Amino acid sequence: MPTSRRKLSAVYKDFVNEIKRLERYDRENQTKFSASITAVGPVKLSKRQLYMLTEAIFFAGYRAYENFLRDIFLLYCMEKCPRSGQVVKSFLKPRDFNHVESLIQSSRPFLDWSSPITVIERAELYLEQGCPIKIPISMNQDLLTDYKRIRNHIAHNSKESLDEYKKTLRKHYGTIPLIIPPVGEFLLQSEMKKFHKYKLLTFFDLMKKLAYDLT
Predict the structure, then answer these.
(1) pLDDT in tens, 152-208
(2) Is residue 135 a contact partner of residue 141, using CB atoms and an 8 Å limit?
(3) Which 3 state secondary structure label does DSSP give 84?
(4) 202 lies in a domain?
(5) pTM greater than 0.90 (yes/no)
(6) Nearest alpha carbon to residue 90 among 99, 79, 80, 75
(7) Angle, vertex CA 83, rays to CA 79 and CA 86, nearest 5
(8) pLDDT band at residue 40, thresholds of 50, 70 and 90?
């Protein structure tokens, strides 16, 4: 994680480049898996391996999103302006980038950037009308909550994370399936309204659109 940032454009560029890199990696894995299905010789990539790689790609993308969100939030607390030219008003008067994070963090051991509700409340607390963070996050709150649940289940694989993961499964299937699919398998499920896209691709699309809307 970078310790100091100066330009929103640099944060945006780095994040989008990382998402595009992960998209390429996913395409490569899909190609190898497809070749394995018809291969006569040794399997290049098994279904289990594909699921594990898909989980890793999603987790890396989500981690990049958390770092991106952290950076732009702190920059807005320094009253940096987005590309729209909108004037940003901060209730903080920090000395520099690192000082902003220290002020927000206070005595807490860490700042949570994964919860959309927490980010919205933080924006309302430190930025006038929560702008320009509140609206883009609020508009995508449901999807971001699902992605947080998926991220947490990859990271923790606990009873608590499974219970939350099941809430996302119920939204997709209409019920909780008898056999809970691994996260990697679920991320490769086609979207109900977009059969040409699976969930990992929807995640990539949202990350790029959200990054644009936030900067």
Answers:
(1) 999 999 999 999 999 999 999 999 999 999 999 999 999 977 668 999 999 999 999
(2) no
(3) coil
(4) yes
(5) yes
(6) 79
(7) 50
(8) low
In sequence order, which residues have a C-beta less than 8 Å from that of residue 185 and are 6 or more positions away? 51
Which pLDDT band, with edges at 50, 70 and 90, does 1 fall under?
very low
Between CA 153 and CA 170 the distance in angstroms is 15
- Cβ atoms of 198 and 188 within 8 Å: the answer is yes
Compute how many other C-beta atoms are within 10 angstroms of the C-beta atom of residue 151.
Answer: 22
Q: How many distinct structural domains can be found in the chain?
A: 1
Q: Which residue has the higher pLDDT, 42 or 31?
A: 31
Asked, for residue 184, whether it belongs to a domain, the answer is: yes
Alpha carbon 105 to its chain's center: 21
Which tokens belong to 21? 């890199």
Tell me, yes or no, whether 209 lies in a domain.
Answer: yes
Structure-block tokens of residue 5: 């940032």
Would you say 69 and 114 are in contact if contact means Cβ atoms under 8 Å apart?
Answer: no
Range of the domain at 172: 142-213
Alpha-carbon distance values, 129 to 27, 87, 148, 171, 197 (Å): 40, 12, 25, 31, 35
Long-range residue pairs from 154-159, CB within 8 A, at least 24 positions apart, any chain:
154/55, 154/58, 154/59, 154/183, 155/59
pLDDT in tens, 67-117: 999 999 999 999 999 999 999 999 998 888 889 888 998 867 789 999 999
Query: Can you state the percent helix, strand and coil of the chain, rounding each to 5?
Result: 65, 0, 30
